[in-house]
Sequence to fold (228 residues):
Amino acid sequence: DAGVIQSPRHEVTEMGQEVTLRCKPISGHNSLFWYRQTMMRGLELLIYFNNNVPIDDSGMPEDRFSAKMPNASFSTLKIQPSEPRDSAVYFCASSLNSGPYEQYFGPGTRLTVT
Amino acid sequence: GESVGLHLPTLSVQEGDNSIINCAYSNSASDYFIWYKQESGKGPQFIIDIRSNMDKRQGQRVTVLLNKTVKHLSLQIAATQPGDSAVYFCAENPMNSGYSTLTFGKGTMLLVSP
Fold:
């Protein structure tokens, strides 16, 4: 099993540019989560999907952030326009909603906005 | 102004010692708990889990203890090794959430010296 796959692993962009982060969950998992991790705020849940449907996006910082899950094997997190304060490590995780509730995390995307 | 980072509690031990990492959880309705280990530059990795109908569960070199009365969770690592150095997070799943969401604690850094 390849585990959760994220791309790119590192992204450096200039303020104002659009950034798209990608995630491929573990095959068969029906829940997908996007997290952001910073030294200031720790690990924060941004949004999660169940069966490709967004369930709770209350953690999304503002309208500049959007997430989609067009099918069971792919999700994107987009930031447009990006700002320096968006610099963080973004993790994608997947799980089986029917339990157990262990979430499997990807390696993360380190985003730097200059 | 000066930025204030997330000051993680730190536990420093010698190789071969037993380590105990503590966590206080917030939701008395939570029925599932997980410990994750996060090494530098990697995503959180599952260590061990426990359901609320248990008060102790053992894995390989690790034991999780659950005290529901005081909403306390602990992770015990036997014969700690340098490779155990990482940040450890506890997480809880609220029974009434309906989904496999997890609420993460702030984390504890474990430093193991040879």
